[in-house]
Design a protein that fits this description.
It contains ten helices and eleven strands. With 290 residues, the chain is α/β, with parallel strands linked by helices. Residues 1-228 form the ABC transporter domain.
Length: 290
């Protein structure tokens, strides 16, 4: 995607399989929103080819759109509707596009229970709390039983309990419904918990593509071993924590306590990837200036 003479996205290439949960991470301005809007059909790429459920998104018809679900960061319309009335109304638009193997829409009461709004089914949308409104956003996004679901910062405003319930819902949709899910989030712990695969976008390019475990092993690879021996605390960084701990106990038959192994987190990996990319870009700009 090019705006004027500026390439916002360059050579972005990836695929997502049925039932896979893919998290798109990246700093602000990396091109995440533009990527998602191209996939949803709201923007046309300047060049290149995109296929979503077998179609060019910009040319998808109503049948194609019925297979998509979109949960935006915020949506403040329909404040006078009651929760059940709104979901039942929106769901009716999907009925003509149901198939024998994928009837549409979700049953309204089942959906309300699934997203945790059963006690608020007859409440006006304007009266919902922020977390309850976010659950309604999710319900609207999946009411048509989509094959592909886009989630943009889905748990913003959720309390810890609601966040855990939502994570269970995502796993259910991917495992039982075979729904492909592409989500953006700034919560790296959430991405690590939900995603089968993580894409890191920086400077308009995908700079990493793999499972959380694969990225951690490839980028950081080191672990911290922390222990106390004879009252003194020690910290050691190693590539092979298991071998180091084994050798530690060979050297000290007694006196070792409070042993802890800290492996690199997704946050460590993400920061290392982005910093490496930004460092390389800075070097390129310096060379270009010379």
């Amino acid at each position: 995607m090019r705006y004027g003479t500026t390439d916002v996205l360059r050579g972005v290439a990836f695929s997502a399989a049925p039932g896979e949960v893919v998290a798109l991470l990246g700093p602000n301005g990396a091109g995440k929103t533009t990527t998602i809007e191209i996939l949803e059909g709201f923007r046309l790429p300047s060049t290149g080819h995109v296929r979503v459920l077998g179609e060019e998104p910009g040319r998808g018809d109503e049948m194609w759109r019925a297979k998509l679900g979109v949960v935006l960061q915020s949506w403040r319309d329909h404040s006078r509707w009651r929760v059940r009335e709104l979901l039942d109304h929106v769901g009716r638009y999907y009925r003509p596009y149901g198939t024998p193997d994928r009837p549409r829409p979700f049953d309204t009461d089942e959906l309300i229970g699934t997203v945790g709004l059963a006690e608020h089914a007859h409440k006006k949308v304007a009266k919902l709390s922020g977390g309850q409104r976010r659950r309604l956003d999710v319900a609207i996004g999946i009411v048509g039983r989509p094959e592909l679901l886009f989630l943009d910062e889905p748990t913003a405003g959720f309390d810890p309990h609601a966040r855990r319930d939502f994570h269970d819902l995502v796993h259910r949709l991917s495992d039982l419904e075979g729904m492909t899910i592409l989500l953006t989030t700034h919560d790296l712990a959430e991405a690590e918990r939900l995603a089968d695969r993580i894409l890191v976008l920086a400077g308009g390019r995908i700079i990493a593509n793999g499972s959380p475990d694969q990225l951690s092993r490839h980028v950081a690879g080191k672990s911290e071993v922390i222990w106390t021996h004879d009252g003194r605390r020690h910290v050691h960084t190693t590539d092979d924590a298991t071998a180091f701990v084994r050798d530690l106990f060979r050297r000290h038959e007694s006196g070792v306590s409070e042993l802890e192994v800290r492996r690199s987190t997704l946050e460590d990996t993400y920061m290392a990837l982005v910093q490496r990319h930004e460092g390389g870009r800075a070097e390129q700009e310096e060379v270009a200036a010379l």
